[in-house]
Each structure stands twice: as C-alpha cells, then as structure tokens.
Amino acid sequence: MPELPEVESARAAIERAGLRRRIADVDDTDSWECRPHAPGEIRDVLVGRMLTGAFRRGKSMWCETSGVGRARTPGPVLGLHLGMSGRILITSPRGDLTEGGDWVGGRYGEGGSAPERKPVWDRFTLTFTDGGTLRLFDKRRLGRVRLDPDLSALGPDAEQVGADELAARVSRSRAPVKARLLDQSVIAGVGNLLADETLWQARLSPQRPADELSAAELATLHESLHEATRAAIEHGDVHTGEVIEFRGRGRHCPRCGAEMQTATVGGRTTWWCPQEQR
User: How far apart are CA 65 and CA 147, in angstroms?
Assistant: First the structure.
C-alpha cells in the first residue's frame, strides 16, 4: 500500500503539473471508486474550476479548487486516495507525463502509455481545456475519490509531528510500539515498511509495549521516524530504506549480521534484528 512518501510523490506531481489548469470535463463514472457520489455529481461541481493547491496529511491527499469564472468563493475540496496501488498521471498539452504514487517496482512499467496500463484502469480523469489530463490510475480499484473528505480522525502527519507530541501520543497505550505507529489516529502516514525501517533505525523492538519506552527512547524514535520519512521522500518511496531489502527469511541485519526475526505485530508481518532491536 502506498505510504506517506509515495502519497507525497503524487501530491508533488499534482503541484508541479496539475494546478491552475481549467477543467473542461470529468470522468467520474466509476461508481465504486467515486462512492458515495453518483456518476456526474463530481463532474457537475468541478467543470470550469481549477485545482489551486495540493495537500497531504499522512496517506490522505486533497486538492483545493477555484471559483467558477470571476467568482472568488473557492470550490469544493477534491479528495484523492491512492488505495493499494494507485498512481496519479498528469499529461501536459504536448503529452509529456508527470506522475507519482505507488512504487512501480517493475509491476506496472514506467510511463502512462505502457501496454500494461490499460485505459480501463484509469478510474477517475480530469480533462483540462488545454487538452491535458490528470488521471487516477488504479489497477486494483481500491482508491477513493470524494468531495470534501473528512480528515478529522487522522493524527498529526508523521513528517511534521513534533517530538513531544509523538511521545505523548505513542506512549499512552500498552500496545506494541509498532502497532501505535501504524494507528493512523495516533500518527498519520506510517505503513508497514516505514514502521519497520523507523524501528530498525531507532534500535527498538516492534514488540516493546509503548508505555514502557523511556524519554530517551521516545526521542530517538522521533528522530528516526523523521529521518526515515525524509529519506524515503527524497528517494521516491519506502522501498529504498536501508533495512527493507533484508526483510525476509534467511536474510541478515545489514548492521550487525544477525539473522532477521519475524512475527505478526499490529496485524502486519514484521521484521527486526533480534540482536540490536530491544
């Protein structure tokens, strides 16, 4: 599933190539991806507007829209969720492609016209008056498009959260620290891989009860979370983390050489170094 860094790459793609372009048409006919809106409902309110800003908290992304014509009153907020494997594909009037989202990793190819990117997998499309488009490509059909999404249940963004707030939120439960990191109401944006990378960097066992972490360990956790998140954003996805390729049977910690250990923590398959992560 796309985690914070992949969603940030999609947001950045929209910011680079999708803003201030007048919307001429909208294909919102995929009633599953666009639920609870009926086909045509999103189109009716977006045609004639422009996307004016692209924003993100955790794994959730949204765009603000302009008024219509000379109207200064902003339009509705357009929420875009990538689901398990979604990508945002934006074409210029000349057909140049800007994209971001789920790690391609050889699964879907590079480029919006690749044969394995069938048009039927474009679940939502904005067509601009200049002839370009913004598409939500979602082969698995698990993304969501909705107007004025409710973000009230999300905790603070993992990239932005301060040390004191992270410590207070994570430590108020006896649940394993990894489970606390994965809880989007506690911290928004951390998925399975980013959690494993963060805890490996912090040298903390994912099974440690969160309320038993010392102040120094919580400070280290905060530093490691920010470092892991920023590195993944810089390199484009969480799969570039230092320990990610070593998550597997018979593989060894890249720092000390100990064989990696696995268990289910917080409902997710988890890998850690039993020698260093305590």
Answer: 11
Strands (DSSP E) found in 13-113: 23-27, 51-57, 60-65, 78-81, 87-91, 97-101
State how far the Cα of 47 lies from the Cα of 167, in Å rounded to an integer. 45
- pTM equals 0.91
pLDDT one-digit tens code per residue, 66-93: 999 888 899 999 999 999 889 999 999 9
The pLDDT mean for the chain works out to 94
**What is the distance between the alpha carbons of residues 203 and 159, in angstroms, rounded to a whole number?**
20
Provide mean pLDDT across the span 6-29: 97
Report the distance separating Cα 148 and Cα 146, nearest Å: 7
176 preceded by a cis bond (ω within 30 of 0)? no
Answer yes or no: are the C-beta atoms of 4 and 190 closer than 8 Å. Answer: yes
What letter represents residue 81's amino acid? Answer: H
Query: pLDDT tens across 155-202, in order?
Result: 999 999 999 999 999 999 999 999 999 999 999 999 999 999 999 999
Looking at 2.40.128.270, 3.20.190.10, 3.40.50.1820, 3.30.70.100, the CATH number of the domain 4-147 comes to 3.20.190.10
CB of 58 within 8 A of CB of 184?
yes
Residue type at 147?
L
Cβ(185)–Cβ(153) under 8 Å?
Answer: yes
What CATH number labels 163-272?
1.10.8.50
Residue boundaries of the structural domains of the chain: 4-147, 163-272
Predicted local distance difference test score (pLDDT) of residue 114: 56
